[in-house]
Every structure is written in C-alpha cells, then in structure tokens.
Amino acid sequence: MRIVRFSIDGNVAFGAVEGGPPPASGGGTPTAAGEGTPPGSDGLVVDIMKGVPFGDFELSGTKIPLDKVRLLPPVLPNKVVAIGRNYAAHAAELGNEVPDAPWAFFKPSTSVIGPGDPIVYPSFSQEVHHEAELAVVISRLCRDVPRDRVKDVILGFTCANDVTARDTQRAEKQWARAKGFDSSCPLGPWIETSLDLDAAGDLAITATVNGELRQAGRTRQMLNSIEDLIVNITEAMTLLPGDVLLTGTPAGVGPLLPGDEVAVTIEGIGTLTNKVISRG
C-alpha cells in the first residue's frame, strides 16, 4: 500500500494510492492541479482512509484522482532521528572518519515539508547541499526493540532529503542549525508499506538537480543496517507512531541554489521533488 496524506478543499486526510506501480525514476514538475504530484501519476487515484494508518482504519471507497489533491508530508513526526556518515564513500568525500557506532542527530518537526513544497534557502548560509536518503516511518510506540522485532515497528518507507547548510555545519561543529532549519527535511511522496526489510536493504537511491544526476547509490552500502539503527536508537529513547528515521546518504552530495529543482528517487518507492527558493 502507498499511503498519502493530502488536502482537498481545505480538508486533510490520509488515503491509499491505487492504479499502478510507483514511479521508478525521474524528477517532474508539480502541476497546478495536484501540487507535489510525482511523475508518472496519470491515472492514479486516492482512496480516502477512515482513520489513521497508525491505528485501526479502513478504506472508504471514495476515490479522487491523485492529480486533483495537494500532497502533504506523508507524516508529521514528533521527531526525526537522522544518522550521519552511514555510507563510507559519503564520509570520505567530506574528509570525515567513519564512526564506530551509529552517529545520530535530530531534525525538528518544523523542518518537515512535503512533495512540491519549497526548500527555503536559509539566510545564514551560502552553501546548502542535498542529501538523498531512505526514510523509515515508525508504526507504533516502541523502546528497546530487539533485532527480531524491528519489522514489527515499521509502518513503511519514504524518500527524504536531508538538506544541509554545509558551511554552517563546518563552522558550528554541532548540527542543530545546519540540518534543522525550516524546510530542511522534505519527505514523500508517500509511505510505501509493501517493502520488507530485505528489500529495503538493497534499493537504488538517486538525486538529480535540474535533471542532472548527482547521487547514485544503493541502500546495501549502508554501514549500519535498518535493524542496527532501530536497535541502537531505541536503546536510548522511545519512538512514537509517525516518527521518522533517516538512514544516511550515499556519495555525491552537492550544492543547491535558489531556482534549482531537486528530485530524490528510491527504487520501489517513488520520487520526491522540491524547488529551492530564496528566503523572502
């Protein structure tokens, strides 16, 4: 199931996307009719959900063309827990050592935006980078999750862009402003629930800027697996339904400028596209 969160006529709801496989690649420009609609969405419909995907729900049977709704962030997390330097080649390209254990940091809920929403270039930075990442959406409250139960706490997977003010990250040493500014965490276009952990552990992941390929890797290159990360994080903190885990980025990160369009594509999930704008 592909779960979306959307608005139409001022109302917000969850729904299930029906009508075809998720797009495998490409960027695309959101249309006026369906803001944030991913490429390859012609003919897709949203079956409106009664309830929320973190509890009991059913599909209403009321269906709306996907290109007639505005896609929102597929989830509004209490917290986004992100992992740094989880791909060796990415650590190397920035001249960093690979950490001995998962290196976690937070992005606030106010950093989250959805497909088609603008990434607002922060006033305090002159070097903003894209970072394409696989995101894991948590399904239920959990703490001290054993490895063999990790699958039970995952609702599904989505695309993420860990947008980073790289100059600020270098200058300030800690990452709160560099990675936590407003609009620095695009998520979407939907939550894909049909992938199991084995499949999620070997997906192609790319980022393009204005159609030019910048990043290309596979999730099997992660130094710490999804299981490793959830076990490690829940040793320290409780994860809540809708919380999001960002699993790190492959090599190829690079600059974004106002006017650029950046697209993150993950095999079996889809494409998340956002434009960069200047802060007004």
From TrEMBL:
InterPro entries reported in the protein's UniProt record: Fumarylacetoacetase-like_C, Fumarylacetoacetase_C_sf, Rv2993c-like_N
Span list, region Disordered: 18-41
Compositional bias annotation for Low complexity: 30-41
Domain Fumarylacetoacetase-like C-terminal per the UniProt entry, residue ranges: 79-276
Species this protein is from: Actinacidiphila reveromycinica
Protein name, as recorded: Putative isomerase
GO annotation, biological process: carboxylic acid metabolic process
Pfam families, per database record: FAA_hydrolase, Rv2993c-like_N
Keyword Glycoprotein: no
Keyword Isomerase: yes
